[in-house]
Request: fold
Amino acid sequence: MVESLPPVIAIDGPSASGKGTVAQKVAEALGFHYLDSGSLYRLVGLVARNSGISLDDEVRLAGVAGNLAVAFSGDKILIEKQDVTEGIRTEESGRAASAVAVHPQVRTALLDRQRAFRQLPGLVADGRDMGSVVFPDARLKVFLTATVEERAMRRYKQLKQKGIVATLDPLLQDLRERDARDESRSAAPLRQGSDARLLDTTAMSIADAVERVLTWYRAETGDARH
Ligand code: DC
Reply:
């Protein structure tokens, strides 16, 4: 008998769509593990910047990706014992992540690390290529999005809550640029796969989005427990 791998729910979508929050809550509801794959690209960008490595230097960046001394400890992300949880969340880190993510060798170097999160009883993974490349056999694939204006507004409110002064226009511009780069790169571009379900959260609460994903998952697995 072929041993089956733990189930995966893949949630892909553009920046600031809320996919991270939804994915985390779905994982909590099911008692599954959670992978925020964007954090790995953000970490590569951060280490590269701290080591003076150019964001165009594919070979050295792939070396960084393959040797990331990262530890996920509860809600904290540590690099060589240094807490970088907040440091990788800045807009600058997001831009650096998007730049390192265009390199195929970087993406390949991160594959095994991402797949190692697939453990019992299951995994919810969010990113850009979870359903298309990293977990093509995911039980459920969701493409979670919202209009760019709504996403910029969400990011704006998030920053304000943290006491960070921001203006809407540059955030909007930045998201448009990141979308364009993530969608147009040749390696694993951001797009809705033909086997992924579209979840447009523009006018939807987080709780409703979570419920929708759980309903789809139950229907997929025939599991009425959750
Ligand atoms: O999800 P995020 O905003 O933290 O991701 C930051 C960048 O990392 C994003 O602009 C593109 C890249 N990324 C990727 O290419 N593939 C993934 N699976 C996750 C993120």
Notes: The mean pLDDT is 92. The CA atoms of residues 70 and 216 lie 33 Å apart.
